[in-house]
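Researcher: Here's a chain I'd like modeled. Treat it as a single chain, no partners, no ligands.
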Amino acid sequence: MSNIIIRSFVPSDRDWVVAAHAELYAREAGFDDSFGVLVADILDRFIDGHNPDFERGWIATDGGVRLGSIFCMRQDAQTAKLRLFQLSAQARGQGVGHQLLQTCKDFARSTGYARMVLATHKSHAAACALYQRNGWSTTAERPIVSFGQPLIEQEMALTL
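Model: Modeled as a single isolated chain. Structure tokens:
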């Protein structure tokens, strides 16, 4: 990882973001095809109607190769929701995830949000550890069945 660039998401990144999420979570968590459908729906709504003053997405690249994504979406006037954060296996442990997370957090803070929230699964231990190292705390936890898997859903929050 020598030339990491964090750039703005553009609509032509859509299919890559959907495929990257679907493939990664199928391989690592056993998620079924409904996960890719959900990611596509989130992105389509973002592309069609987001307000760039309050909502943005970013793609991490190295030499033009996409490595990860993260999105800041408006939940309400005071709260931003972190969405679609993923990092390819080859980019892990290199600080790229931290860069993406910091970019998203800095945008939310500069936009005037007072807090950020996210939903994840307890089984995503590396991501949960990254969030906690960056000041996030777990606010709720519950067992669910989603994407064909029994999971422990976690909600996390960060005061900005």
